[in-house]
User: Which sequence fits this backbone?
């Protein structure tokens, strides 16, 4: 039965969740390429409001990069998976970037405590 995929291609789908809250993450960029040197700019999809993503056709040895401003970057090489069939489910958990939350807290503190009301 012909599936429309090249012999070395597979379909990959899954969900992306937050490590600390175990909640789905919307808007995570999933970039993919045949090698790690090109993974940031080749092709990309984004997770939906339920944290789901789907890549209909990708090389079975591709590298996937999961990225979001608030979370640490995660790279996954598909060829490292134990068993790859023509359809692969890959669920990913991202960890919050402590630097991002530290900077946003510092900025909030600055604006709240350095606010000067207009003079009358």
Assistant:
């Amino acid at each position: 039965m012909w599936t429309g995929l090249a012999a070395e291609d597979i379909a990959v789908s899954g969900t992306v969740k937050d490590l600390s809250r175990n909640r789905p993450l919307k808007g995570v960029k999933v970039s993919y390429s045949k090698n790690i040197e090109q993974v940031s700019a080749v092709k990309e999809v984004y997770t939906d409001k339920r944290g789901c993503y789907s890549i209909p056709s990708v090389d079975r040895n591709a590298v996937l990069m999961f990225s979001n401003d608030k979370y640490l970057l995660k790279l996954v090489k598909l060829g490292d998976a134990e068993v790859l069939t023509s359809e692969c489910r890959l669920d990913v958990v991202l960890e919050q970037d402590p630097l991002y939350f530290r900077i946003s807290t510092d900025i909030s503190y600055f604006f709240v405590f350095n606010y000067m009301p207009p003079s009358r």
In short: The helical segments are 98-113.
